[in-house]
């Protein structure tokens, strides 16, 4: 599934077989002048859902886009847990993206949006320019996992039982790691503090490759 320029969206994995769209927005006032007409935009998209969304199947890939550029519906999308989810957003008009309980591959690229990840497994490639990225991952992870912000912080929680090979980097920020993840460092506020630009660690002997990076902000690795 490819989701493009959706300003307000929560994506949740569930055990069903269908993709379900629901709106959390209040009911819009009916436009009497639009009766008998259909909503389209300059990209040729048509609201075929009644939710302010265009949803089309292109060669087996579901493409989701909102009709309005600045405004837009507040949408929850439930997907079968193993579905691959791709989300891209470039405008400054969006809110945080929330992804929960998805067991398929996740690809996210945003300019301004913050990103929240809850109980996801990967593989995943998460990139944002200005947003913060926060996550609490599943104990069952899949290679590879890359989580990168240019200006925002990256804050990730992992189960202490997970087997992972972690690479953390920052240019202008600092790196903080929970002491239960055994990496040599000084202590700062209950987390270990690292001064070098890049820190690598093997958790429980190593395993899934995890990359955490922020150019201008801090990187946090904490226990779940």
Structural class: mainly beta
Low-confidence residue ranges: none
Query: Reading side by side through the largest sheet, how are the strands ordered?
Result: 3-6-2-8-10-12-14-21-16-18-17
- Mean residue pLDDT: 89
Provide the gyration radius in Å.
20 Å
Shape: elongated
Helix content: under 10%
Distance N to C terminus: 29 Å
Task: Note the run of SSEs as H and E.
Answer: EEEEEEEEEEEEEEEEEEEEE
Q: What proportion strand? A: over 45%
DSSP summary, beta strand count = 21
Largest sheet: 11 strands, mixed
Number of helices: 0
Organism: Chryseolinea soli
Protein name: DUF4097 domain-containing protein
List descriptors.
single chain, 11-stranded mixed beta sheet, 10-stranded mixed beta sheet, DUF4097 domain-containing protein, Toastrack_DUF4097
Describe the structure.
Helix content is 0%, strand content 47%. Strand 4 and strand 5 form a beta hairpin. The radius of gyration is 20 Å and the shape is elongated. The chain starts with a strand and ends with a strand. InterPro entries: Toastrack_DUF4097. It comes from Chryseolinea soli.
Write a brief structural summary.
This is DUF4097 domain-containing protein. Residues 95-210 form the DUF4097 domain. With 224 residues, the chain is mostly beta strands.
Q: How do the strands and helices of this protein lay out in sequence?
A:
Layout: E1 2-4, E2 8-14, E3 20-23, E4 53-58, E5 61-66, E6 74-80, E7 85-89, E8 97-100, E9 106-110, E10 115-118, E11 124-128, E12 133-136, E13 145-149, E14 154-158, E15 164-170, E16 175-177, E17 186-188, E18 191-194, E19 198-203, E20 208-214, E21 219-223
């Amino acid at each position: 599934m490819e989701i493009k320029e959706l300003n307000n969206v929560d994506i949740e994995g569930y055990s069903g077989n269908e993709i379900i769209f629901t709106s959390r927005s209040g009911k819009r006032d009916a436009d009497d002048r639009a009766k008998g007409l259909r909503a389209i935009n300059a990209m040729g998209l048509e609201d075929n859902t009644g939710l302010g969304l265009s949803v089309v199947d292109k060669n087996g890939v579901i493409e989701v886009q909102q009709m309005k550029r600045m405004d837009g519906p507040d949408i929850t999308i439930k997907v079968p847990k193993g579905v691959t989810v791709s989300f891209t957003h470039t405008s400054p008009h969006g809110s945080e993206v929330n992804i929960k309980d998805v067991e398929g591959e996740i690809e996210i690229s945003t300019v301004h949006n913050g990103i929240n990840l809850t109980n996801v497994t990967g593989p995943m490639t998460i990139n944002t320019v200005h947003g913060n990225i926060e996550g609490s991952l599943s104990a069952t992870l899949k290679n590879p996992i890359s989580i990168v912000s240019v200006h925002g912080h990256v804050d990730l929680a992992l189960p202490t039982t997970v087997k992972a090979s972690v690479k953390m980097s920052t240019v202008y920020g600092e790196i903080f790691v929970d002491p239960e993840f055994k990496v040599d460092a000084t202590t700062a506020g209950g987390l270990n503090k690292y001064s070098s630009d890049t820190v690598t660690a093997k958790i429980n002997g190593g395993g899934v490759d995890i990359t955490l990076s922020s150019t201008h902000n801090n990187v946090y690795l904490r226990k779940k």
